Amino acid sequence: MVELQRKQQTEDLGIKLSVVKALSKLDSFLTGEKYNELHRKYKDIFLSQTSDVCKQVMDAINNGDYERVALEMLALESANEIGGSFLKQAKRELRDSVDQLLNKTKDDVIRGESIEIEGIKSVVDNL
Prior knowledge:
By secondary structure, the chain is mostly helical. The chain has one domain (2-126). 80% of the residues lie in helices and 0% in strands. The chain is built from 6 helices and no strands. The protein has helices spanning 2-7, 10-23, 35-62, 66-77, 80-110, 117-126. α2 (10-23) runs antiparallel to α3 (35-62). The longest helix has 31 residues, at 80-110. The radius of gyration is 21 Å and the shape is rod-shaped. It starts with a helix and ends with a helix. The model has no long low-confidence stretch (mean pLDDT 74).
């Protein structure tokens, strides 16, 4: 799990956390480090990494990099229950961004009679 944390492989870390959570039921039979302690330690790291992914999604949305948005949202989607809330937030932001883009494109088309070539390129780029 340390290696996954270092490489920031959020999806794999989330899967391993689920396994560790299930194994924590056996803690009463163990001596030394318990699975519950391990789960708690890496859950905080996982939450931090998931939060970073969410920030990257927001940054990509603001920059109009929708390909990167899709990739990062896949990572959030695979992040179990913790990533779920971040995914909902990212979907709201994406929906707002697409709505703004759609409205801007509609406005550009409506003002079409006075649009210069650059304005037409903007409309085409938005499509």
